[in-house]
Amino acid sequence: MFAFLVLISISNSFCAESDDNQQYVSCNNPLECVNVRTPLPPWQFTVLPRKFMVPSRRLVDLDLRALVAVPGPSPAPNPSWITTPNPDPNNGYYQASGVAGAIVVFAIVVVVPCLIICCLRRRRRRSNLDDFQADEILKSYGSIAPRRYTYAEVKKLTKSFKDKVGQGGYGLVYKGTLDDGRIVAVKVLKETKGNGEEFINEVVSISRTSHVNIVALLGFCYEKTKNKRALIFEFVSNGSLDIFLCNKGSSNTNCHLDIGDLFPIAVGVARGLEYLHRGCRTRILHFDIKPHNILLDEDLCPKISDFGLAKLCKTKESIVSMTGMRGTVGYIAPEVFNRCFGGVSHKSDVYSYGMLILEMVGGRREEFLDGTSQSSENYFPDCIYTELERRSEGLHMFGEITREEEDTIHKMITVSLWCILTNPSDRPSMSKVIEMLEGSLQSLQLPPKPSLVLPTRSPQESSHSESIPL
């Protein structure tokens, strides 16, 4: 291979040719000449110490190795007439830089893609394992397990989520129709906590409940890879109790429930809670009893819904462990937001039930829910307790009512005041509540006067990893 030399400004040069090579001689001054021959041997620069017949001039051998690199085949042994200069001291630096660069390129091109592929495969393996575990759990429950729907099926039965009928802190609710023609409510969850096994176990536990006063869970959707979860309930036509309770000055035209309608609703909710606390194989604590979560069917039969803050525990457990607060301001038991009042248990649901009944008979939500009246003078339970103490004068705050209606209201208020006692151990169980509601008024005694207990900060709607958003 021929080599072409690029030299810095060689002046006074001339070329002499022979049969097999060319010689370049540069004379920069009268006393020095540079003699270079081409072609060069491979990987070498040759400076020939040839005696060039120039009178009174000295021949200088110039090493051009550092100026030009000439590629070629593997080098042959140097002839004896070739001088080999000392290695360049910078060669070690460039070699180290080259090795480091090669390592970086190798890592980018090979190692990083391999790591990404491994992570994706591991995530897919975990998702497949979750789906496998979900299927195994469902098989273990046999025929009592709810039906599992794909997300595509959920989208189809809701007509691509066309008819929105409600929303909550855990997702949107859509109206849908099953293949057999049944109308259902589909709740698409926005965010859930806990792994798939916990979700499936709790869904199955809730679905095993069968009570006229508990909304029925008909199916669910769980797709780990797409992070899609939905719950399918029976559709309750009249909506929530909330829209039937009138505040002062409300323009709601649905406020037509009298005490004859409200009392059966109160008893029905009590029966539903008693079933959750004692009738199930696993005790279910709701932790969010309020009018919005009580649905009414066409016959005004109440159904407890929205188990978004529910906690499962063993039937024999009297106290449950729970981190943080949960519930809605105005219905939260004191021990839920401050453990100084006692341990959290099924008695916390009893407190919420008592506040629900007070709201049903009083219709005074704007005074104890909006936070504007937090003094003892305006505390609604305190006001209604004072009203009962002077019952001989009549329950004037309820307007014109019959004697029978007055007795019913008196009974409901007395039971609710027992339910909202500050000390959880002083509250009755839901079984006792039903007994009091269905018993005679004469057998009931007024409890101690209630005291005002309010949370010092806003509660978190959900703060436990095991809560199930139903």
Automatic annotation (TrEMBL):
Recorded GO MF terms: ATP binding; protein serine/threonine kinase activity
PROSITE patterns: PROTEIN_KINASE_ATP, PROTEIN_KINASE_DOM, PROTEIN_KINASE_ST
Signal peptide annotation: 1-18
Main location: membrane
Gene Ontology CC: one annotated term: membrane
Keywords in alphabetical order: ATP-binding, Glycoprotein, Kinase, Membrane, Nucleotide-binding, Serine/threonine-protein kinase, Signal, Transferase, Transmembrane, Transmembrane helix
Subcellular location: Membrane
Protein name from the UniProt record: Protein kinase domain-containing protein
Mode of membrane association: Single-pass type I membrane protein
Region (Disordered): 447-470
UniProt: ATP binding residues: K187
Domain Protein kinase: 159-441
Compositionally biased intervals (Polar residues): 457-470
Protein family membership: Belongs to the protein kinase superfamily.
Annotated transmembrane regions: 99-120
Gene3D superfamilies cross-referenced by the UniProt entry: Phosphorylase Kinase, domain 1, Transferase(Phosphotransferase) domain 1
InterPro entries assigned to the protein according to its UniProt record, in alphabetical order: Kinase-like_dom_sf (IPR011009), LRK10/LRL21-25-like (IPR045874), Prot_kinase_dom (IPR000719), Protein_kinase_ATP_BS (IPR017441), Ser/Thr_kinase_AS (IPR008271)
A Pfam family assignment: Pkinase
PANTHER family found in the cross-reference section: RUST RESISTANCE KINASE LR10-RELATED
